[in-house]
Amino acid sequence: MGAFLFYLLKSGCCLVVFYIFFKLLMSRSTFFRFNRITLLVGLLGCTLLPLIELTTTEETFLHSPLYAIHEILQSTESVILNPEQMEDPILISEKNPEINSLNWIPVTLAFIYGVGALVTLIWLSLSTCRLIQLIRTSEKKQFGNYVLVIPQQPTASFSWGKYIVISAADYSQQSEEILLHETMHLRNHHTLDLLFMQIFLLVYWFNPVVWLLKRELQEVHEFEADNGVINTGIDATKYQLLLVKKAVGTRLYSMANGFNHSKLKKRITMMLKERTNRWARLKLLLAVPVMAGALYVFAQPEVKEVPRQIQSELQQKEADDYSSLMFFFKEGGERYSKLVNGAYPPSKIKARQVHSLFVNKQNRVMFDNDVCSVDELKSTIVKNLTKSWEESKRKEYQVISFQVDRGSEIAALTTILKEVKGAFEQIRADLSITLTDKSEEALDRLFPVLLSEGATRNYGLKELSMEEKISGIVVTIHTSEGKEVMKDYTLTELKQKVTAARAKQADPESLVIGLKIEKGCKMGYVTDTKQVLRECSALKINYSTDN
């Protein structure tokens, strides 16, 4: 349903542009039949134009908001960002059953649309039923190829199908001009045009432009019928006086052509107006660049399969230790958060966008639930993320959910994260080749760097008690009085030292903790140390790794 709603949005935009185009350039001309055809073909074109799929290598300022809307309408299942469940608040794990929720935006819009379409259908059905009832219960006479319907009650004259409805009072008085006018409607098959418009109204009932276009079409019908009457030799002045006389009446039948339907002044003006120069029809050629512009706006920014030729602008850090690598991914997540919370609505990340990366206590890797060697990891990530992204027509951001066993080693994790970083860099470098704007912001819009560091798992190394010693990490407490180094500490000792150091600081928030992580250190020790520091409100941490 989301795809259909997005189609209605695009076709609705085309209809607005077409209405403005017709109103400004064509509505005042005397090419009545030409204008009629223009309206019908234009309406049909506005429905077909959004179905044409084109691609472009450049992204315009309209692409981003359009496809942000497309993402919202297409999404049926969402994952809400929740900073409380992750150390790095980028996304919630796809395994959490509490976060999967229905995207109510397209559901609500679809419901409203359905109700509106049903109401419109009922209204049109009632109008048609009233018309049929009037024909069935009134006197009928043959009138050439048509049937005269002569109701006794006062009724504004109109035509529909093969029927011409004229009140008994009009039929007994000045009926020649009225009958001739309605005959012109039937000869030109105006009923088919109105039937076509009713179908349009059922689909685009919410779009006021469609109602305005229907009015324009009905006015063209009246102009064409009036012109046909005048061309038969009827006295124009007498006919115009008749229009003035019949300029009152109630229109109850939406699918019929009424004698006094259009604005009287405008009809008379059109009768008296000098014929438009035939070359004025060439104004319709201006529709060509308008259509081309619409196609360009709706075109999808496409990237081609090309060899890697340039380096990505992602490479901001020369160091490849564990802390700098995590900082690299943290910056990517922060840029993404600013992007979606600024000019764009909050992102809804679906489960299929999440790619799991798990490292066990033996430092073995599993990506997307398949065992993968470190040497194969980069190419596997590039393949899987690119495939998923392309299958979503380049609209769904890809996220790696990074989880490790507490028993895994920092050195192994550093190597793995290098491969992950390299995979993101390769994807974005390949994409940037075809972009005019190669800035980091443009790449973030196209393919952001998103890695979520989840909580460590307790498979290989149990959570330490407060009294067990931690090895492999050197803690340096920097205060205004100097620094204190801690090795082979317990978590209780660390907590006491940090709490005391904060109490001595004039500004407790200025306390800085340095963590030097040795190569063979277990991830569980890092996690426990970071947790204690958070409990002590020591949030300024400098990381370094023993390479």
TrEMBL record:
Signal peptide from the UniProt entry: none
Domain (Peptidase M56): residue spans on this chain: 154-271
TM stretches of this protein: 6-25, 37-56, 104-126, 194-213
UniProt-listed Pfam families: Peptidase_M56
Keyword ATP-binding belongs to the record: no
InterPro entries attached to this UniProt entry: Beta-lactam_resp_regulator (IPR052173), Peptidase_M56 (IPR008756)
Keyword annotations of the record: Membrane, Transmembrane, Transmembrane helix
PANTHER family, per the entry: POSSIBLE SENSOR-TRANSDUCER PROTEIN BLAR, SLR0241 PROTEIN
Official protein name in the record: Transcriptional regulator
